[in-house]
Specification:
By secondary structure, the protein is of the alpha/beta class. The protein contains 17 helices and twelve strands. The chain has a five-stranded parallel β-sheet with strand order 3-4-5-6-7. Helix 6 links the parallel strand 3 and strand 4. Helix 4 runs antiparallel to helix 5.
Length: about 550
């Protein structure tokens, strides 16, 4: 028995020794892996795409993460904040500049850049908030609370489902890239019209942008509201462009979409001129009823649809040619601060922002059409140097009349035209047509001058001319500061005959962009207003994970 037990003990000791010899290397290797792994591991499956499956449990046990470092911004840099608490980050940058794509004479040039992917975060659980700086050359957007990942496999990419909003934004990124490349690229062919010449800041870039607009732009018009306040506007008055645009937009079949999920822009179809006529109590000096009407309307559409709250109005626009248009926009803070305001009264001293808002022309269509207005003699058949006729509206015209009314045969300035003298005939006989501001900066005389082949003389302070992000107004008009009104004749006489002829011919070329057609024609005033809206929409990035279809 003793011998047998000794054998068993010997066998057991031998087995334990072998097991121990086998385990020691394993323990050493495990320790090395543990130590080295904890020091050097910086990877993890940190998903940029939260809707994709990820091995969260395994990654949590094996990943050592570092927080994303956001570069500090300079104190002098102006941070852009569009109150993106709902959608994440809204981004506005200039899509137009002399040095990059197009140009705006009233705002500094900024580059257009293709959308860049956000930096890779190393922590799937950490929330990252980015302040976007309004700095030239930068185009970066990311969503708040967004997470980022290492490259995913091709199989996972195939499962990626893009929302409708993401598809829209991808199309805008492609458009921005195409516009940027067009600056120095080959000219694009067009059967109807090819923008060309010094009336454009960059004709190639404008042409590409216009073609991209025709290919992509969708506008959703809210159906809520009843005429005469909504879906209606004057078409035979100095405010005719309000009603004209509303009518064209309502009946358009190319740019208007009935599916809001496919829309780049959302139109709030109220008419300020009609609000003044039917809601405002005459001589009451109470703007409250007009503001309340706008507040109620936005409340209705923001309750019924998600789109206003998605962007806090940044992809919405209102339009007004009435002088009270800017004041109406103050009804709602986001309408003034975020939304695109299409205004005749484009006065920078009253809050007009050329990088966000749109200046559009004031056109006085007394008959509802331009028939008989357009056209005039050649420069050699215009004996009169300058002409103006108009009442004492605002602070500038009294100065003009004080210095020039009935005081010079070359500079015909009248408060009232003599009996039997035609206003439009006088414009057609004149080389230069004086366009002083009235109570507000816009004047219908600017477009009337272009219609009749007369070179416009803009006498105004703080005015942003229509479509000035595309058109170089200095090539076909004269800008005279209010303080130079006493020197008006000398300024005009110092323009050589050769330079005048060039300006006159360029004005005739630019005229097509101000013509009102029924139905609208490519590159006319309706399409130019849409193009200005399109440029502003290119400057807005809307991110909303989970939105869309």
């Amino acid at each position: 028995m003793a011998s047998g037990n000794d054998g068993l003990l010997s066998c057991s000791s031998s087995s334990s020794l072998k097991l121990l010899l086998f385990m020691i290397p394993l323990l050493v290797i495990s320790g090395c892996v543990s130590v080295l792994g904890s020091r050097n591991s910086g990877w993890g499956f940190i998903s940029r795409y939260p809707w994709l499956p990820s091995p969260e449990n395994a990654a949590a046990a094996m990943t050592r993460v570092k927080p994303v470092q956001v570069p500090p911004t300079k104190e002098k840099e102006r941070l852009l904040d569009l109150h993106s608490t709902v959608v994440g980050v809204h981004r506005r940058e200039e899509a137009v500049s002399e040095d990059s794509v197009l140009n705006r004479s009233s705002s500094p040039p900024l580059d257009v850049e293709a959308a860049q992917p956000p930096p890779v975060a190393a922590n799937a659980t950490e929330k990252v908030s980015l302040n976007i700086s309004k700095r030239a050359g930068s185009l970066f957007a990311a969503s708040l609370n967004e997470t980022h990942a290492l490259p995913v496999t091709s199989r996972q990419r195939r499962r990626r489902q893009y929302t409708t909003l993401e598809k829209l934004e991808a199309g805008l990124r492609r458009a921005r890239s195409a516009i940027r490349e067009a600056k120095t690229g080959n000219r694009t062919t067009d059967l109807d019209y090819i923008p060309n010449g010094p009336i454009y800041w960059n004709d190639n870039a404008f042409h590409r942008s216009y073609l991209e607009m025709e290919k992509q732009l969708n506008v959703f018009v809210y159906n809520e509201g009843e005429p005469p306040l909504f879906h209606n506007g004057p078409c035979k008055s100095i405010y005719s462009m309000e009603g004209n645009f509303i009518h064209r937009m309502e009946t358009d079949s190319h740019f208007r979409t009935k599916d809001p999920e496919k829309a780049h822009l959302f139109f709030l179809p109220f008419s300020v001129a009609m609000l003044v006529r039917f809601v405002y109590v005459r001589d009451s000096h109470d703007f409250g009823p007009i503001k309340q009407t706008v507040i109620d309307y936005v409340n209705v559409v923001s309750t019924k649809y998600p789109y206003w709250n998605r962007s806090l109005g940044a992809d919405h626009f209102m339009l007004a040619c009435h002088d009270w248009g800017p004041e109406t926009s103050f009804s709602i803070p986001y309408l003034h601060k975020n939304s695109i305001r299409v205004l005749c009264n484009a006065n920078t001293s009253e809050g007009f922002n050329p990088s966000k808002d749109v200046s559009f022309p004031e056109i006085n269509l007394l008959t509802g059409s331009t028939e008989g207005f357009i056209g005039g003699p050649s420069p050699s058949h215009r004996p009169q140097l300058a002409f103006f006729a108009g009442g004492l509206h605002g602070p500038i015209r009294p100065i003009l009349l004080e210095h020039w009314e009935n005081k010079d045969e070359d500079v015909k300035v009248h408060k009232y035209l003599p009996k039997g003298v035609s206003y439009y005939d006088m414009m057609r006989k004149s080389k230069y047509c004086l366009c002083p501001s009235g109570y507000e900066v816009a004047s219908p005389r600017v477009v009337e001058a272009l219609y009749t082949g007369c070179v416009p003389v803009l006498i105004s302070d703080h005015y942003v001319p229509p479509f000035s992000d595309v058109l170089n107004w200095k090539s076909f008009s004269v800008e005279v500061p209010v303080g130079e009104i006493p020197n008006l004749k000398r300024i005009l006489m110092n323009i050589s005959a050769r330079q005048y002829i060039r300006m006159q011919r360029r004005g005739v070329q630019a005229r097509r962009h101000f013509e009102v057609n029924s139905p609208p024609k490519r590159y006319d005033v309706f399409h130019m207003i849409l193009h200005s809206l399109w440029l502003r929409r290119l400057n807005v990035r809307v991110n909303h994970h989970g939105m869309g279809k």
